Amino acid sequence: MQKRTAKIAPATQERKSQPSQEPALQEELEPLLDMTELTKILRVCRPKIYDLMRQKGLPSVMIGDRRFFIRSSILLWMKQQESTTF
User: Fold this and answer.
1) Alpha-carbon span 53 to 33, nearest angstrom
2) What's the half-sphere exposure (Cβ side, CA atoms, 13 Å) at 58?
3) Sheet holding 61-63, edge to edge
4) How far apart are CA 79 and CA 39, in angstroms?
5) End-to-end CA distance of the chain
6) Is residue 67 packed enough to be buried (19+ CB in 10 Å), middle (13-18) or exposed (0-12)?
7) Are 49 and 38 in contact (CB under 8 A)?
8) Cβ neighbours of residue 7 under 8 Å, at least 6 residues apart?
9) Looking at the chain, which terminus has fewer C-beta neighbours within 10 angstroms, N or C?
10) Helix (H), strand (E), coil (C) string for the chain
11) pTM
12) pLDDT tens profile 16-71
C-alpha cells in the first residue's frame, strides 16, 4: 500500500516572492490514514468510526470522495478524550 501524506501549501505570494527558496519552505509531509487503517489502530468497526466523528468530533479530511485521517490529529484527539475520573 502506498503511503499518503498531507501538506499545507505556503501562501501564493510567498511562492512568487521567493521561488528559489520554495523547497526549503516546504513542510515535512505527514502520513494519512484511511478508514481501514484507523479501524485497526483504534480497534473498532467502521460504523463506530462514523459515530465517533459525529458524536465526539473525531477529526478527518475529505480528499475527493475519500475520507482520511491525519495521524497527529488522531493522537491529539485521543489525548483530549482521556478521562481522569471514573
Assistant:
1) 15
2) 19
3) 4-6, 30-34, 66-70, 61-63
4) 18
5) 40
6) middle
7) yes
8) 26, 27, 29, 30
9) C
10) CCCEEECCCCCHHHHHHCHHHHHHHCCCCEEEEEHHHHHHHHCCCHHHHHHHHHHHCCCCEEECCEEEEEHHHHHHHHHHHCCCCC
11) 0.63
12) 555 554 554 456 778 899 999 999 999 999 999 999 999 999 999 999 999 999 99
Say whether pLDDT at 10 is over 60.
Answer: no
Quote the CA–CA distance of 20 and 6 in Å, as a whole number: 23
Q: What residues have CB less than 8 Å from 63, skipping those under 6 apart? A: 32
Residue of 39, 29, 31 lying closest to 3 (CA atoms): 31
Cα 2 from Cα 61, distance rounded (Å): 18
